[in-house]
Amino acid sequence: MTTTINNVAVQCKGVTKVYGTGGTQVHALRGVDIDIHTNELMMMVGPSGSGKTTLISIIAGVLDRCGGECKVFGHDYQTMSNNEKANYRRKNIGFVFQMFNLLPTLTAAENVAVPLLINGVKRREAFERARSLLARVGMGDRTRSLPSQLSGGQQQRVAIARSLLHNPKLIVCDEPTSALDHVTGHKVMELLREVAVGPDRAFVVVTHDARIFEFADRIAKMDDGHIIDIKNAHRHSLPKKTP
Amino acid sequence: MNFVALKMLVGNRAKYLGIIVGLTFASLLITQQSAIFMGLMTRTFGFLSDTSIPDVWVMDPKVQYIDDLKPLKETESLRIRGIKGVAWAVPLYKGLLKARLPNGAFQTCIVVGLDDETLIGGPPTMLQGKLANLRQSDAIIVDGVAAKGRLANVTRDGKRVPLKIGDTMELNDHRAVVTGICEVSRTFQSQPVIYTTFSRSVAYAPPERKLMSFVMVKAKPGQDLHELCQRIRRTTGLAAYTKNDFKMLTVRYYLKYTGIPINFGITVCLGFIVGIAIAGQTFYNFTLDNIRYFGTLKAMGASSRLLLRMILLQATLVGSVGYGIGVGVASALGTLSGSTELSFYLPWQLLVFSATAVMLICAISAVVSMRTVLKLEPAIVFQN
Fold first, then answer.
1. Which whole number is the average pLDDT over B160-186?
2. How far apart are CA B196 and CA B143, in angstroms?
3. Under an 8 A CB cutoff, do A62 and B379 touch?
């Protein structure tokens, strides 16, 4: 069995990011080099303020870098207009947030359907696909529930379904388990591995939750705007998908 | 995404209702106060609207509005009859006279004296009796609202008995017999209107050298009215206006020399400001409350244009609902007050005006919200 581990999805070289100007400057990234491959779950870990979130923001195309190079599936956001970036994100990036960011007035199915609606898919088709994906993440019986009627774990399942529905090439997760208890966090990560990792997809998770490190293929350790170590994780229990 | 925009708005019940209440209040205030203002302005020329037959009104050149009476010599009507393009010209008396009611009370009334022969210029609608009854001795016709109200006979036990045909009163010490009850447009000062013949009205009026108020002129068929007015002015040295021009002269006087437009203008502005303050601020707060979700949509690839469209749709929805309820309540209040002294006139132009005002409030609110969303960095979604 072969994997596409050598297929580079994200390639960053010497990426820098500075917030503020003059005396209030903060160097969030001080020259980050990292490659992220398809069919792997890359975890970025490190203390608060180490630059993890800044780095995935740049990789996801929601934040401009100050220097260096960063290509996502061969595309450099810096050469794109805002509209082109939005268009790229719409089609290729899936997001999972720490606080889920589900629209509180939409039902679970409606929330999941949002990426398709943004992509201009008809409402009926989008809802059908959303319901079907919700069933796949074990939420088939809660499609009509509002986020306020769901537990944290259930909300994160909905958010995972939302990040996957438009079949993006890159999924970025920001602290997906930090608002969940240990057991729920474990289940969510199991689900993420099961449904999100794929041969044509790269998957980046930012976390400081050491309890979920076991789900990573590789772990990049960050500190003070640098990547200080990248190592392969020792996973034995969870299989990797074949193309 | 229209669906998402509407659910975001309607799903937040408290904010949604707050915006609707603000816009409804603004719409109600703007529409109702403007309609009352329009009603008042319409009343200023109510007498002209009731007297529909003449095409041209001739008067002293110094007359500024319909109730600004500067009498003419009666012979002026004869001169005018001889002017080219005039089909007929009849005199009209209009003046304020004191009426003494059967119970001894006094009431100032507008007395209108119609041409004895033709009775042209009479009330538009007769409720009881006939206009021709004015040919009877001492005959007068009184307006129905006054007959039940200010001219009604109040008995010793306080009961109000409406004036009816056959009742008598005194006009400036002259006997007058009610021979008909008519319906007229409310006047600006809401005084009772009494119709009689020209010769009788000048007999009722205090003696003056000149007593004719206006000459009412009918143009020959095909005659250009403005041309005829100019001809009358040139020939007689008097002022001559078409009916519409005379209405506008009257309205302009009230707009210029009374505080009415300022008072109503202030209230309408207040409605606008209240709309911006309540609805605008609530709408902006609604956007701020949802800024994380707008950021999420932006991160997920929603273009600025799409987000602006969503906000515009939300603003349009609350604007339409608020406007609809406000105008509906204003119309209902206007209908309910139809039989009272309150003046209320709601033409379609006023509906357009208040719709524009409400949409302007929404547009201002939306623009402020749009700026916030446009400036929003999608990276906000990763800030916890």
1. 91
2. 12
3. yes
